[in-house]
Design a protein that fits this description.
The structure is a homodimer of 473-residue chains. Helices cover 35% and strands 20% of the residues of chain A. Chain A is built from 17 helices and 19 strands. In chain A, the strands form four sheets. In chain A, strands 12, 13, 14, 15, 16, 17, 18 and 19 form an eight-stranded antiparallel β-sheet that branches. A five-stranded antiparallel β-sheet of chain A has the order 5-6-10-8-9. Chains A, B: Keywords: FAD, Flavoprotein.
Chain lengths: 473, 473
């Protein structure tokens, strides 16, 4: 029997797609990667995922897991492989508020988990623009970051347990809800961030946290990135570490925002060199209950700290959200980042991380070098400044492969000189394979290849992603 | 040339020990494991560690890394292998307070890192009784936990980068200080907690945190474990998550403490069914600066919460430390745990984790079953209750291997029925190999063996630890 007919027998004809229906499931948010899968299959549960993988493994057919199609690195591209969509594994199996956990399947959309946690008075802190489409499996497979990493960590820090279908179709049960477990190697963190190259994540136990009972959110106008870092340290110190987000938007960002999304407005009448979106969150009654004697509301705390910074000239202006609508408006300007980046083509987008105190050094160095490489290029920066994570985009005058490579190489040179990473939160996929080859410690690459070969000797799991071609050990 | 003469040529005769001098380096805190290494070698730096491993690998001689000798599971035992001591790799290479990191070598003693962080106004939050002897390499290799995991996580959560000598002597450079890095598989977390079976950790980048500017510490007397969990939730809620430690000591613990260490005293005139040691820590000025208008000192916050709990009968009594000396005295009673456990022999010690709300179910079930298995056995419990981590020790009337196995099996049965782990924070080593074989998901064991075989095909790195014998994939 053919693979297609075997798959159809397994999951039913409605869930085996071919042609344009299959291709649609393989796109991502960049629009840069379009291939033709032999088919797309939508299993209903873990057992069906395992059975599909066994069918593919028997024929050594490549399996490419896909969930919310919000990737940015070509991680779900395939030409000739079998797309395995996790969208039907969409149950929230359990929420136990007293244990602060949610047991979710791979295809649960991130914002559904947000809502389910909120209904229990809790919070799932992973937060980024694509939350209305991104699914748990993709979030875990890329170890997604976002705007709250500063306070709560990346996806890896929010996961207690996993269920994984291995490349041979066996199911690996790591569905623990334990906060301590030293029974052998940390397999969970190996599968998280492996971008589907070691197996398919089908379910997970995620941590929930107490819902902040108050937020204080502001847009702040400053002169320099360095002043912004000083402000961050002041606010962390004044609040005892309550800063949840600290997002950096230089004038290049504000100008493009005004151009592409004029409907969103800008917080200041004149665009300042640097705009920071800062948000504090608090669960403690002494900061959230204004009727309590002695309580200092969180917004007052932020206001006092910003007033002092204004007084001494560290900042130029600030707008504090007074309502949830105003808060959402401040965030909408930040969350339009992907949209305003991809609206102009060709673009060369990056996702770099540097040590916390090196972000300015990166921007200075790359702006020094860029004119010699791409004379007419515009740039756009937006950064999770508290994590040292910058999304620096170059818009060259023309689409030219050699120019693209020279620009990426120049960026990588600067990043490497600062001991940074060319891949902070979006993953490697296809788009950063060259960077992996050029910049990653060769011994680390060898170890990764040895692990890949040990778990997937036939190389059927999302082949060609993450690891550049090279001899497996 | 013999291995000994090769090693002597490499590191000098003063650093190649044989006979009793070598054996001394192989002991651990339980005193249960004594073998005879062929030699012990003390390389001075990473290059020498790599050269030693290469010499051993060429002869397929087993290499057993050892650092502070405070292990509890036989992880550094060897009969016939080469002990590799990391004690001379003892430099703190760098501390960068503005980046909140310390770059340390494998042999740095934990308390030296505490002191070095404190000198910069910062804090390294990993905290346990053996901190004056335990070294960074052992701490990382066992993913050590301790008393502050509730707030700061285990060792894995406190490490940003690693340097590892692989089983073939190559050096793997993962010395990142980045807070986000998605450039390939998470090798760091694979080597952390691998107990030296995949390579030897020679250096690390550790996270530092702001030093708490105030602590509030108390001993609390309660009736039941369940009441203690209610109290923990109240205190977390009242403080906005500032509980750093929540240690559970039932009457069995207090009685043994009074017997073995009468000099340490007890907090209450009559031993209550449950004593809790609770500590809150705060960095925020509104909780730490009593001169600030509106500030609520942390101790007053704890006092108010405990007074309310006393009023409604949730707790029976409480003693709040008023001075640092009183605080140290409260901690000394908790930190005598290993000493009072190992003072009575034979003992069967365990290190289990259960879901946060299942600790009482574990104790009830095991106390029901134990009399039928070990009629005259005494027990001793001490727990990091906020992590669901219990150290439950059984003192059988006689040293009997079959009885020992029956007791361990009964404990494992209960733990498994609660979806817990037989190994929470001490590691597997030799002492929990049977538990790994009996209780770990067989697919997970297979994946671990495949990884071990891929990285260490000749099996020279700390052989026989962590993974029970079985076919490598």
């Amino acid at each position: 029997m053919s693979l297609i007919s075997d798959l159809t027998a397994l999951v039913g004809p409605a869930h085996v797609l071919t042609g344009a229906d299959a291709t649609r499931l393989g796109h991502d948010w960049t629009g840069n990667y379009r291939g033709q899968p032999i088919a797309a299959v939508r299993p209903a549960n873990t057992a069906e995922v395992a059975a599909v993988v066994k069918l593919a493994a028997a024929r050594k057919t490549a399996v490419i897991p896909v969930s919310g199609n919000t990737g940015l690195v070509g991680g779900s591209f395939t030409d000739g492989g079998l797309l395995l969509s996790l969208e039907r594994l969409n149950r929230i199996r359990d929420i136990r508020p007293e244990a602060r956990i949610a047991v979710v399947e791979a295809g649960v959309i991130l914002s559904r988990l947000h809502d389910a946690a909120e209904a229990q008075g809790l919070y799932f802190p992973l937060w980024f623009g694509a939350r209305g489409s991104a699914m748990i499996s993709g979030v875990l497979s890329t170890n997604a970051g976002g705007s709250n990493v500063l306070r709560y960590g990346s996806t890896r820090a929010l996961c207690l347990g996993l269920e994984v279908v291995l490349p041979d179709g066996r199911v690996l049960d790591l569905m623990s809800e334990l906060h301590k477990d030293n029974s052998g190697y940390d397999l969970r963190d190996l599968f998280i961030g492996a971008e589907g190259t070691l197996g398919i994540i089908t379910a997970a136990v995620m941590k929930l946290v107490p819902a902040p009972r108050a937020h204080a959110t502001a847009a702040v106008a400053l002169d320099t990135l360095s002043d912004a870092l000083t402000l961050l340290n002041r606010l962390q110190s004044a609040s005892g570490g309550l800063v949840e987000a600290f997002e950096f938007m230089p004038a290049t960002y504000s100008r493009r925002l005004a151009e592409v999304r004029p409907d969103l407005g800008l917080p200041f009448a004149t665009i300042p060199p640097v705009t920071i979106l800062v948000e504090l969150g608090a669960t403690a009654p002494m900061l959230t209950d204004p009727d309590d004697s002695g309580a200092i509301p969180l917004t007052a705390l932020l206001q006092t700290a910003l007033a002092a910074a204004l007084e001494e000239g560290l900042i130029h202006d600030a707008v504090i959200a007074q309502t949830e609508t105003q808060r959402r408006a401040l965030w909408a300007r930040r969350e339009a980042a992907a949209e305003i980046t991809f609206a102009k083509r060709p673009f060369i987008d990056t996702d770099i991380a540097v040590p916390l105190d090196c972000a300015e050094a990166f921007l200075t160095a790359i702006h020094d070098r860029l004119p010699a490489i791409a004379p007419d290029a515009e740039t756009l920066t937006v950064a999770h400044l508290g994590d040292g994570n910058l999304h620096f985009t170059v818009f060259p005058a023309t689409a030219d492969k050699a120019l693209h490579d020279r620009v990426v190489s120049a960026i990588e040179d600067v990043v490497q000189s600062l001991r940074g990473s060319f891949s902070a939160e979006h993953g490697v996929g296809l788009s950063k394979l060259n960077s992996m080859q050029r910049r990653k410690d060769p011994v680390a690459l060898d170890v990764m290849r040895a692990i890949k070969h040990a778990l997937d000797p036939d190389g059927i799991m999302n082949p060609g992603k993450v690891l550049p071609a090279g001899a497996a050990k």
